[in-house]
Amino acid sequence: MMLGIHYHTTSADNVVSLDREQELALEKKVLVEDLYGLQKEISELSVKLEKLGLGEKEAAEALARELAKIKRFAGLSAVSGPGVEVVVQGQPGDDGSGTVQASKVLDEHLMKMLNELFSAGSEAVAINGQRITAVSEVRLAGNHINVNGTPLEPPYQILAIGNASDLKNRLELRGGLVEYLLSEYGISVETREKDKVVIPAFKGELYFEYAEPVKEI
Amino acid sequence: MSAIKLKNFYWSVALVSLVLGLILALLYRNNMDIQQDEAIRRTNELADQVEQMKKEHDVLQGQLNRMLLELEDLSTGTHANQIKEEMEQVKIFAGMTKLTGSGVEVTLKDSNISKDYTENPNLYIVHDEDILRVVNELKAAGAEAIAVNEQRLITTTGIRCSGSTIKINKKDLVPPFVITAIGNPETLEGALKMRGGVIDHLQFFGIQVSVKKVEKLEIPAYSGGIKSNYMMDPEA
């Protein structure tokens, strides 16, 4: 038995390096895809650039396609694709005093959920119809949680586009976020894989009062 | 067989088993060491490959960005000019343009409180969650652009602990974490320093936080790709 324990403690390091190996293998897989995508984009763009001599119309079309792509990426146009639907809500439960009280979903629970979905590779995310952008907040204001300055009503429905099973698996990982929210706060999270979800565009205005582009020479 | 003989027999079986067990355990450990070395070698090799591919990625991304600018330069005519105008605003929002403006600089450092062995040291280092809270507060206070250690936050940025570092836009960042945000410096600072707010919370755990209003700061552009594998135009 003693030997058994001894062996167990020394093998812990090995487990860590296995995790690291898996992480690297995953990173490599993503990079291979990215590199392939980049090469494709470059060759497509060079074809477009060559065509530019052909006329104004083609040039404007090529530019419009680039604009559309950047808008989808930034959250400025609606997008669709496979992904997950995640419903987050409080549950009635005993708070220890004997009275049954519903647990309450807090802004930081939703903030963590959105962050987890992006970390797991989501390409677009919305919560109750509010598209998440680079400047979207998730914040308690009065009785409501605000996103993009708009108050949301529970239950909270989050849609995310990406690899559906990867996203679901990440959330439902043992010791992961879903388990944590349930055990620590009594929050229920239901995740369903979807063949197609539609995510709306950011509805706010593009207005920059303080930021100015730096012209690079 | 007499009782004494039987007892001796048991003892010798026990002794042989013990010795055998020890030998097996030693063999096993040796074997584990070899396997472990092999795993480390594989991991290092993989890490080198990933590093190399990241460099290649940056080179290609740079090339693509230059080609995009070329496309914009070459496109003329009224229609193209309209598109270019919208493109400028969209690129600022998307994080693809380097920006300058007033704002705040927030620095987060691990706690320097001498750690009590009975307490969880995990509580006193800066986590992904702490950065997330600060960033969220800045967004709520109207920040127009944010970066963490020179990594521009974009729509799809996740902030995640990975071992002892924090990963943002596929880059590993190490403390101290410097969060820069462009916006109204008073509003941004006020939101962070609110009583019971995010700074109070972090300082409770001894995280060293400093906030500095800055008249002019620069926030770099996002340098990664914008390729998507899953999302498309819903009309398409």
Task: Please tell me about this protein's structure.
- The complex is a heterodimer of chains A (217) and B (236).
- Chain A is of the alpha+beta class and 217 residues long.
- Chain A folds into two domains: 2-74, no CATH class; 79-199, Alpha-Beta Plaits.
- Chain A is 45% helix and 26% strand.
- Chain A is built from six helices and eleven strands.
- Chain A has helices at residues 2-10, 12-51, 56-74, 107-119, 164-171, 177-185; strands at residues 79-90, 92-94, 100-102, 124-127, 130-131, 138-141, 144-147, 150-152, 156-161, 187-199, 212-213.
- Chain A has a five-stranded antiparallel beta sheet with strand order 5-4-9-1-10. Chain A has a three-stranded antiparallel beta sheet with strand order 6-7-8, covered by helices on one side.
- In chain A, β6 and β7 form a beta hairpin.
- The longest helix of chain A has 40 residues, at 12-51.
- Chain A is globular and about 75 Å long.
- Mean pLDDT of chain A is 85; it is low at 1-16.
- By secondary structure, chain B is α+β, with helices and mostly antiparallel strands.
- Chain B has two domains: 1-74; 99-219, Alpha-Beta Plaits, CATH 3.30.70.
- Chain B contains five helices and eight strands.
- In chain B, strands 3-2-7-1-8 form a five-stranded antiparallel beta sheet. Chain B has a three-stranded antiparallel beta sheet with strand order 4-5-6, with helices on one face.
- In chain B, a hairpin with a 2-residue loop joins β4 and β5.
- At the A-B interface, α1, α2, α3, β1 and α4 of A face α1, α2, β1, α3 and β4 of B.
Task: Looking at this protein, list some descriptive labels.
heterodimer; A: 217 residues; five-stranded antiparallel beta sheet; 6 helices; 26% strand; globular; disordered N terminus; B: 236 residues; Alpha-Beta Plaits; 2 domains; 5 helices; 19% strand; elongated
